[in-house]
Structure formats: C-alpha cells, structure tokens
User: Fold this.
Amino acid sequence: ATVAALLPESCRARLVDLNVRALRDDDLRWADVVLTGGLLIQVESILEVVEQARAFGRPVAVGGPVPTTSPELFGDADVVFRGEAEGRIDELIEALARGAGDQVVLEAAGRFPEMTSVPVPRFDLLELSEYASVSVQYSRGCPFRCEFCDVIEIFGRRPRVKTPEQVVAELEAIHGLGYRGTVFFVDDNFIGNKAEVKRLLPVLRDWQVAHGR
Assistant:
C-alpha cells in the first residue's frame, strides 16, 4: 500500500494480498507490470508470482526485505529492487520500461530516506473487511545489534520516524474508509527513538479520545 502511494498519479494500481486471496489470471491480464516481494519465509510464494507474471509476458520487479538481503534468489525477475523505495520510484519505472533483457538490480547504496518523505499508504486498495487488524508503520531502523535480527541490515541503526501529523493522517485515512477494528503498529522497535515516541503518544491519545476510541 505504501509503494502504491509512491507511484505517479498516472499509474493505476491493483493490490492483491495473497494472505487474502489468490492471484488470478484476470489480475495479470489487467496489469502492465507486476510488483511483488516479501519476507524470507515467503520466498516460495514470491517465486510463484514471478513465474505467473512471466507466463503472461508481464515485466516483474521484486522488492522488500528478502530481495534486499538475498537478491540471488530471484534470477527470473526482470528487476530486483534492493532497499527502500522513497525517492527511487522513477528509477524503478525506468528499469521496468526497458523491457526484455538482462536482469536489472537496483542497489540501495546505503540510502535510508527520512520517514517524513513517506506518503499516506493506499489503504483504499485493501479489502479491509478481511483483516483482523490494519497495519501502520511509524518508524524504520533500530539502535541495537541483536544477533538474531536482520532489521539493522535492512533499515540501519538510526531509528527514523514519521511525524505525529503523518501518523494522524494515516489514522484518519483508515477511519474515513469506515474501518473500526484494531490498528497494529508494526515497527520493529516502536520505542527505538524514545524522545520522538514520547511526542507521538499524547497525540495518539487525543486522537483516540476525539474519535470515541
């Protein structure tokens, strides 16, 4: 939903969450290009989407955590997008527009964009009734070096955060779509930047009170 919000206004987007429903042939006929990605545990599913897209002759780009850390797993993708997308969408569109040829790997080059550049995700593309909770991302990055975790390899050690106003705008967007369930903050370390989260919490409290919780 966040990537969809980064696309130019001229691009129409359809979001298919494979946790909710299968990818259908009609989706692939509709699409000019296919963007997919996910976590390491979802590699098999990602590869299936790549295969389906190629069967329909659609250029396909993979991105997200596992293509960032393990790009070698996706040899059949047209584009492997490593790192975060903010400020780099034109680069992605240009790579996809080149058409058939050798695979293009777009490197992150150590870029960690500020969260203030992240737009309100396209929550309207989600089938909200299918979710037990809707996810909101407040921050990226973590100051710690836990050996079991690859967060700092993907997002760095400096916790970058959205402003309270950005978070409220996302809550308003979700609320405006009629959703009244749980909102889950999915940060890897919500209190990684304690000074900033202390600014956010009173604003969250006031918003909940104003909306009857």
